[in-house]
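User: Okay, second chain of the day. Same drill as before: sequence in, structure tokens out.
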Amino acid sequence: MNILYESWIWRKFGNYKTLHFIVYTWIFASIFNNIADKELTKLLNANNQTIYTYNYSFGATGIILVIPAALLSLVLVAALVKIRDIFFPSLTTYKVIVFLVKMIKLLWKVVSYILASIGMLIFALAAFFSDSGGRSGGGSYRSSGGASGNSSTNSIDKQKLKREAEWEEKKAEKEAKYAWKQAAKQGNYNDKTYHFNNSVNRAKAKQREYDEAVKRNRNL
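Assistant: Same drill. Structure tokens below.
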């Protein structure tokens, strides 16, 4: 133990530098772990032909990434200490923390003022356009179409509803066919798992939606 305390690493990174080293190591280890999980998940799903997505996670074994994170933190702390000793010899951690707290408070005030100004501007514009709409809508309006105008309007609305119903029917039909295709593919792969049951249930639900869309379209 005496050799460790008298070593170069302890002399360079003792006291508050140790705290920096621990914090940087934790941050880098978390970043490395997230990157590794995402990339391995992409690799795992690269040739995935099913409708399911598989997620990979290092879990407890991700602690192995602490080693490269610690090495990187060691280099970073050494570089920061060197830069501080050269350019800012009187700078301390306490001064940095005080400066960051002041900057955060100042930034919070600026953001608060900006948000308050934007809110006031939005309310002013809303009130202005509301008043303008009320004044412009004060004129007289007379309907001249009578029963024929109402009939043509109803006809247009019915045609619009018919087009929407036909579009919904086609969309539901495509989704149902795709769901049954995926269920068949999952069944050919392995029909003894819950994945196959989920695929069949999803296909049945899509089929019901398609049948309802067909009924709505016929009733129009």
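Confidence is low (pLDDT under 50) at residues 137-146.

User: Thanks, on to the next one.
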